Amino acid sequence: MNFIAIIDDSNKLKNKVKSEISIVCKKNNTKCIFYDLTEVDNINISDLKKQKIKFVLTCGGDGTVIKSSKIAVKIGVPIVGINIGHIGFLSITNNIKNIEKIVKNIEQNNFQIVKRSMLLCSVMRDGKEVGKDICLNEFSFRSKFVGMIGKYSVGFNGYNSWENVYHADGLIISTPTGSTAYSFSAGGPIVTPNVNCILVNPICPHAFNNRCIVIDDKKELFVEIKNNDQLLRVDGKGEFLLDKGDKIFIKKAKEMVDFITFEENSFFNNLLSRIKIM
Question: Is 62 an annotated catalytic residue?
């Protein structure tokens, strides 16, 4: 059995983790291809597909899982995370000693798959697409300048169409997976990964009735930027500068990420253990 391990190379435990994985592979006659997190953007997907990889193992925080998930989707294999970061909502364990148990269970097909949705966004300016990206957690909007309020018109068309204007410090459009990330910090609800929905969550809204709303993920959302100097971030990374009048269309992506889980690692068990850490 072949698998790849993507390790946060900025973490002080990186060498210990690599050593532990190497020992497990030797004992179980398995092969692991190691990548540092900083190498992920340069991975040759075509070459990797030839290696008959069974799964992707990540060692780091949620950021490591998010970045690695795009590799897992491209090569068509599931992903499993070991948290060596702070909280690690997306990982199944905080103990690197569990690596051998994880590898053995996967080799014996003793695991379950949880499919997690992603969102696709298209930035339109003067009728032309000027940006496009995909997220696992969220798309977030905020002002370029600290203290400046953003104004966003949000809605969807078609049957039971809806539109609302938010005056807020920012705006989060989140997947169920992202409900335990930035949206959670902004007061949004926790949603289990199997719920088919999109969360619209204003950050510090300037009106009492502007609160988080959960909608059917069959809808295509739009966000129209109503003032200048707004930024779009994807899973907390990058900053795409938006102009007044830009319209961002957001919908559920065709791609889904397969997360490996085990019977003892239910969503709620993991959630409760992580909340205790916070």
Answer: yes
